[in-house]
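ok so I'm stuck.
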Amino acid sequence: MPPTAVRAQPATRHRELRVDLAVESALLAGGHQLVGGVDEVGRGAWAGPLLVGVVVVDAATVPPPAGTRDSKALTPRRRRELRPELEAWCVAWALGEVSAREVDLRGITKALALATARAVAALPMPPTALIVDGPVDFVSGRLGARRSLPHLEVRPIVGADDLCASVAAASVLAKVARDDKMSAMARRFPRYGFDQHKGYGTRGHAHAIAAHGLTAQHRRTWSFAGQEAPHDDESGSVE
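replied:
not stuck anymore, here's the structure
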């Protein structure tokens, strides 16, 4: 049977929360030598890639750098300040990317699994346990992930990015990387404002699509309304 998702205690999404290694430590004490935290950025975007970050810790990993938390609770400047600290803090980290076209072809759940598999494959040594943010284990049994990692334990936790240091760190590293990609994309497609909304559904983005059409970086299976669409604030404020 799939593991039951753990749910965080009700809380204001971005209140001051202290992430720690409690969940990771429990998995390590249970026999795992390496535990990875997984988080994605770009899931609900109209344009641009989906990125998944994986951050790996072990039993010797010390508490995370001060101020580590979910990327959406941090300013762009603070995320960039934290990036080198987080890279030095963890045992290993990697990113997996899926293009807008691949999202269209596969659907978002399989795209998430594929991006996660690519991130894990890029690690020097794969973890045997993964903590994923959310209620669903989207890794096991998809795209051969279980066959390539037969001993992988996947622990879905609702609100893991607010609780687990490895997941929060993964969210920061993925967010900074994707923001950089969207800023570079803005230079290629200056009419769309990708450096401002990062590909998410804003009124300005909808107006640009209405005026200029879709680029090769847009997800063509998404619904592009002529008004601001709901999103998860990964659109990211800019300084």
